[in-house]
Amino acid sequence: MIHATLCFVLRQTTRGQQVLLGLKKRGFGAGKVNGFGGKLLPGESPRAAMSRELLEECRLTVAPTSFEQRGLLVFRFPSAPHHDHRVRVYTASCFDGSPVETDEMKPEWHPLAGIPLARMWDDDALWLPPVLKGHTVVGRFFFSEDNESVVRYRLWVSPEPATTSECSDSISFAR
Description:
- Strands 1, 2, 3, 4, 5, 6, 7 and 8 form an 8-stranded mixed beta sheet that branches.
- This protein is mainly beta and about 180 residues long.
- It has one domain: Nucleoside Triphosphate Pyrophosphohydrolase.
- The relative contact order is 0.22.
- The protein has helices spanning about 45-60, 125-130; strands at about 1-15, 15-25, 35, 70-75, 85-90, 105-110, 135-145, 150-155.
């Protein structure tokens, strides 16, 4: 199981709130639009990994204390178990710098009402909208043999949006 992070950077503009997404240019998920993140290094905390990944993938600087954890998701790929992931999901709205395209990701701001879900992972349509509204999610997703389509899932969404991070780094669920 790969332990990873995923962050959705948010900003407020005169036209409303926007989310930073990136087109993955190489590796697992290439060609898909996604948030930013990746694998934890040995001994690295999830928040430190998230800071490192944002800097590597789009050159944004975010302090580890600036992330609000919004979920814990497990992705199972029965036909390719080496791709199984356990992902901590974060949002961040306090950052330094402007997003820059890198070898791995091409960043682009999107209005919350215009998220390109058809270009994202199949599961994103289920859990990302609540996360971007401030809810906390816990879920488990099983993919078909094509490693693209969700065949079954369990998802818990907090009933009310959190005004501050109500989801600690110890969030968990029964196996």
